[in-house]
Specification:
By secondary structure, the protein is mostly helical. It contains 7 helices and 2 strands; from the N terminus they run βααααααβα. The C terminus is likely disordered.
Length: about 280
């Protein structure tokens, strides 16, 4: 007589780390918990930027004062001068230049005096010497002398006008070209003050940056320490250790008493006296 058989089996395995490795893991987990409870790194509590140096402030005040005072006046003078020299009424009419008209009058006076005091008397003396005084030859000579004098005066005055024009134009260009350098020269002392102040500020900022770096390193030092410790002791799966197991279970089926009796009966049939049962 038999029956249906069923089984249930439970297996449990436990890995135990070596004592030294377990201590490392406990230390790592405890440090991580303590670090988490601190709330994480804190932001640097001090001032993170350098203040403006007093020399920089003085330089800026000097620049703004100059720009709104004498520097502004210089710029205005340069612009006014440029406009004056570029004004067609001045450039194309050099007689407006002080003394220019008087110089031209001097040229005319000197040329006419030379004609009347030197040239014409010489012509007349020559005519008298040759006996042609009052003749046509004398008149032609005096006419030519007058024409040459007029041409000389015209050419000289034209040259003066051209030179005055070119001179005025050159002065205007030179003044305009010098304006930036002249303006910058006035700002040089203030620029020097500002540059020195900026250098001092850079030095101060360098000190602040070093202090911040030192503070931030102190904030993350515990984390770095734990990370280094973890990298030295390895990962949890590589620790090794001792594995222990436990197996439990039960089975159900036919009558347990009849099963061994069936085996005995089979064994008895093997003997001669047991053939008939």
């Amino acid at each position: 007589m038999g029956g249906k058989t069923g089984q249930r089996q439970d297996t449990t395995q436990t890995t135990t780390l070596p004592g030294n490795q377990q201590g490392n893991v406990d230390l790592l987990m405890s440090g991580a918990r303590d670090l988490y409870n601190t709330g994480g790194p804190q932001y640097f509590p001090g001032q993170t930027y350098a203040g403006t140096d007093p020399r920089t402030i003085a330089g800026r005040e000097g620049m703004t004062g100059y720009a709104g005072g004498s520097g502004l006046g210089l710029a205005q003078d340069v612009v006014a001068n440029d406009r004056r020299f570029m004004d067609p009424n001045n450039i194309f009419n050099p007689s407006n230049i002080p003394g220019f008209q008087r110089a031209q009058e001097g040229v005319i006076t000197n040329a006419n005096n030379n004609l009347t005091r030197n040239v014409l008397p010489a012509i007349r003396q020559g005519a008298q010497a040759t006996g042609s005084y009052g003749g046509s030859r004398q008149g032609i000579a005096e006419g030519l002398a007058g024409g040459e004098t007029s041409r000389y005066i015209g050419d000289t005055l034209a040259g003066m006008n051209m030179n005055a024009y070119n001179t005025g134009l050159g002065l205007a260009n030179s003044a305009a070209n010098r304006a930036p350098q002249t303006y910058g020269l006035g700002l040089a002392p203030s620029n020097t003050m500002a540059q020195v102040g900026d250098q001092y500020r850079t030095d101060e900022q360098r000190g602040i940056d070093a202090e911040m770096a030192r503070y931030n390193f102190g904030e993350i030092a515990p984390l770095l320490n734990l990370q280094n410790f973890q990298s030295l002791i390895g990962q949890a799966g590589t620790y090794g250790g001792t594995t222990t197991g436990q197996q439990t279970g039960n089975a159900t089926g036919g009558n347990s008493f009849l099963q061994p009796m069936g085996g005995l009966m089979t064994l008895a049939s093997m003997f001669p006296w047991g053939g008939g049962g």
